[in-house]
Amino acid sequence: MSDKAALRKLFKEQRKAYDPALRETNSQRIVDRLVESEEYKICETLLCFVSAKYEPNTYPLLRRALIDGKTLAVPRCEEKGIMEFFAIASLDELEKGAYGICEPKKGCQKADGFSESSLCIVPAFSFDKNGHRLGYGGGYYDRFLSRFNGIACGICFDEFLSDLLPTDRYDQKADMLITQSRSFVF
After folding, report:
1. Within 13 Å and on the Cβ side, how many CA atoms surround 19?
2. d(CA 46, CA 61)
3. Which of 40, 79, 119, 129 is the most exposed place for a label (fewest CB within 10 A)?
């Protein structure tokens, strides 16, 4: 088993054991820190994953972006290894999709042509203090971020922040990271 596979297994178990009430409280703290950031304030387009059960809850952020008048784009897996973002105007435009994760319904308009101020919220099992991420192993975000010219912002709980993570040549770093108690810019 590779170092990354072993770490994914470890973090997956730890995330399942993370107290649900603490997850909600700390998720809201992450959202609060994020919307106060200059990067969020200036972005016209927010690209954001729709959280699954054990991830930081992004639904408050999705709702806030819509209220703030941001163009909100969420990902959909198009084919193996390929992920695209689609604009939504309401959370009602989401449905269960690949891997049981909510994604935009067919018919939503593909979002592209992102500006340098576009902000992409990136998930991971863990981030390290240099912006490296331990993703879920499919390479979806690495492929997307390699062609994205905006700002990549990781979010994670302090408890899953690592000092140093193993990396490969295709791994894409975050430009910034927000936890419930700290912000990093890389």
Report:
1. 5
2. 10
3. 79
**Which tokens is 97 given?**
């999709």
Distances from the Cα of 126 to the Cα of 11, 39, 105, 132, angstroms: 8, 21, 29, 8
Which alpha helices (DSSP H) does the chain contain, by range?
A: 3-17, 20-36, 38-42, 59-67, 140-145
**What is the spatial distance between Cα 55 and Cα 15, in angstroms, rounded to a whole number?**
8
Mean per-residue pLDDT pooled into runs of 10, the chain (186 residues): 89 97 98 98 98 96 98 91 94 89 95 96 96 94 96 98 94 97 96
Nearest to 182, CA basis, from 150, 156, 143, 149:
156
Which positions ≥6 away from 164 have C-beta within 8 Å? Answer: 128, 129, 130, 132
CA distance 114 to 92: 24
Could you tell me where the beta strands, DSSP code E, fall in 71-165? Answer: 71-79, 82-88, 94-96, 102-104, 119-122, 126-128, 133-134, 151-155, 161-162
Delineate the domains of the chain, giving CATH numbers in brackets. Answer: 3-185 (3.40.50.10420)
Task: Please choose, from the candidates 129, 115, 138, the residue with its C-alpha nearest in 3D space to the C-alpha of residue 49.
Answer: 138
Cβ distance 56 to 82 under 8 Å?
Answer: no
Distances, alpha carbon 33 to alpha carbons 46, 62, 113, 127, 135, in Å: 15, 14, 27, 17, 22
